[in-house]
């Protein structure tokens, strides 16, 4: 395996931490994010419990697909097993964000699903976002439960904890993270004043097909 370590990928992780704080998607040192280098298969992940505004490229930890540390002197994120398990199960995924956003976490506390209620959500997250079975943070059981409930979707709710979203790259994973939280907010507001209208499975498929094959500049 090519074990070349890339500083530009460490820089992406550093920058993602600042973006997550600035956009209110995490507070303090909570949450963790990683990306996989498609060329080498190596995984670049945040260190455990460090302030995102203080982290530099030297603090990023590089892991292989068996959780061995390949580069870096810091202790990697406590949720490293969740990240690596996703990469091992989903060849299409090269970025993972785990965080504790407000409205998505409300649904998780109630062990509710987040249905596909808007165009952006069904196009980039999936038909719906389900809630995994509960497990303690930082355990391999949480990693197994999260990846099982994620399935082929790009997001999963973690009960009494937060969310995990995945994407083909970090910019897309960040967008998915934002869309999930926005959709959770809309769903909770809609439920509080009435009965949300759900999109039919037929229309969900039509919108997903449109996003994949027609939408955008061609
Ligand atoms: Zn967490």
Write down how many β-strands occur, each being a DSSP E stretch of 2 or more residues: 9
| Continuous helix count | 7
pLDDT averaged over residues: 94
Low-confidence stretches: none
Describe the strand arrangement of the main beta sheet, using strand numbers.
4-3-2-1-5-9-8
Taken as a percent bin, the fraction of beta residues is 15-25%
Please state the overall shape, judged from the principal axes of the Cα atoms.
globular
Q: What is the highest CATH level, the class?
A: Alpha Beta
Q: What hetero molecules are bound to the protein chains?
A: zinc ion
| Fraction in helix | 40-55%
Structural category: alpha+beta
CATH topology: L-fuculose-1-phosphate Aldolase
Largest sheet features:
7 strands, antiparallel
Classified in CATH, the superfamily is Class II aldolase/adducin N-terminal domain
CA(first)-CA(last) distance: 36 Å
Total number of distinct structural domains: 1
Calculate Rg over CA atoms: 17 Å
How do the SSEs run, as a string of H and E?
HEEEEHEHEHEHEEHH
Question: How do the helices and strands line up, and which of them pair or pack?
Answer:
Layout: H1 7-22, E1 32-36, E2 43-45, E3 61-63, E4 69-71, H2 80-89, E5 95-99, H3 102-109, E6 114-115, H4 119-124, E7 128-129, H5 140-150, E8 155-158, E9 162-167, H6 170-193, H7 201-213
Antiparallel strand pairs: 1-2, 1-5, 2-3, 3-4, 5-9, 6-7, 8-9
The gist of it:
The protein has 218 residues and is an alpha+beta fold. It is 40% helix and 15% strand.
């Amino acid at each position: 395996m090519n074990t070349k370590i890339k500083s530009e990928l460490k820089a992406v992780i550093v920058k993602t931490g600042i973006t997550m704080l600035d956009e209110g998607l995490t507070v303090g040192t909570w949450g963790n994010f990683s990306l996989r280098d498609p060329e080498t298969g190596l995984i670049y992940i945040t260190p455990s419990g460090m302030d995102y505004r203080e982290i530099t490229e030297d603090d990023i930890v590089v892991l292989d697909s068996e959780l061995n540390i390949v580069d870096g002197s810091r202790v990697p994120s406590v949720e490293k097993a969740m990240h690596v398990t996703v990469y091992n199960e989903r060849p299409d995924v090269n970025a993972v964000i785990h965080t504790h956003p407000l409205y998505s976490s409300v649904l998780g506390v109630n062990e509710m699903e987040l249905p596909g209620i808007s165009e952006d959500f069904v196009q980039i997250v999936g038909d719906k976002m389900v809630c995994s079975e509960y497990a303690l943070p930082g355990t391999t059981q949480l990693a197994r439960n999260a990846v099982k409930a994620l399935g082929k979707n790009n997001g999963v709710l973690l009960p009494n904890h937060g969310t995990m979203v995945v994407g083909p790259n970090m910019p897309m994973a960040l967008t998915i993270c934002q869309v999930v939280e926005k959709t959770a907010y809309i769903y909770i507001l809609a439920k509080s004043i009435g009965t949300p209208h759900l999109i039919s499975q037929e229309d969900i498929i039509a919108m997903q097909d449109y996003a994949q094959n027609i939408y955008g500049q061609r």
